Amino acid sequence: MNLHERIQDVQTRIAAACQRVGRSVEEVKMIAVTKYVSLETTKDVLDEGLQHIGENRWQDVKPKWEALHERGTWHFIGHLQTNKVKDVIGKFDYIHSLDRLSLAKELDKHAAALGIQVQCFLQVNVSGEESKYGMAPEHLFEFADEVSRMKHIHIAGLMTMAPYEMEADATRPVFRGLRELRDSLNKQHVFPYPITELSMGMSGDFEIAIEEGATWVRLGTLLVGKEI
Ligand SMILES: *Cc1c(COP(=O)(O)O)cnc(C)c1O
């Protein structure tokens, strides 16, 4: 399959997953994760009409961002080191990996200096797998409460990753868990605005994530391929 066919195939699968659980396809947005492909292919992705680009290292995305940033919406999806905040702030429209207070403070400080509000997702390690980034669910509420007082951070939603080696079926409780956490944040009015988004689901498990309420799926290998 070429890029065009892969995009169509994924869109068909997204629509089918939505239909299985009675969701509207408009609720699910696709982030094309271009970390394994060249600048040229990233340009092709935008030419195909995909708007959202996801990357996880500033060093790698820099040439792509410099050449193409006006054409897309940029999502920083990887672990973000505190000393790299200055590189990505103001360039990426969304940060999906806010998982600790030191990072929140740094983001808030740099966003304040730029006079902007940075859109973030709180990354939660729902599965409890040791090697993963993200905060433990039991720390989420206290952390969210602190972040809710930072004027230059706006929380769009929650993000999680299921363990890579997990069978697709086994990921369901992970995604459901994230949805339930979002719903209880809203019920307890931790933020003065509703938290609507769930960034969850990758190439191997996006259909299950959609069945469990994903509003953003992050697709690399399956959608744009792997060249590097
Ligand atoms: C690489 C990556 C993805 C995409 O992974 P694929 O399995 O290639 O779709 C999604 N989310 C994050 C956080 C990633 O680092």
From TrEMBL:
Lineage: Bacteria, Bacillati, Bacillota, Bacilli, Bacillales
Residue span, Alanine racemase N-terminal domain: 14-225
Family according to the record: Belongs to the pyridoxal phosphate-binding protein YggS/PROSC family.
PANTHER family xrefs: PROLINE SYNTHETASE CO-TRANSCRIBED BACTERIAL HOMOLOG PROTEIN, PYRIDOXAL PHOSPHATE HOMEOSTASIS PROTEIN
CDD domains: PLPDE_III_YBL036c_like
Protein name according to UniProt: Pyridoxal phosphate homeostasis protein
UniProt keyword S-adenosyl-L-methionine, yes or no: no
Function: Pyridoxal 5'-phosphate (PLP)-binding protein, which is involved in PLP homeostasis.
InterPro entries per the UniProt record, alphabetical: Ala_racemase_N (IPR001608), PLP-binding_barrel (IPR029066), PyrdxlP_homeostasis (IPR011078)
A GO term for molecular function: pyridoxal phosphate binding
Entry-linked SUPFAM superfamilies: PLP-binding barrel
Top-level lineage group: Bacteria
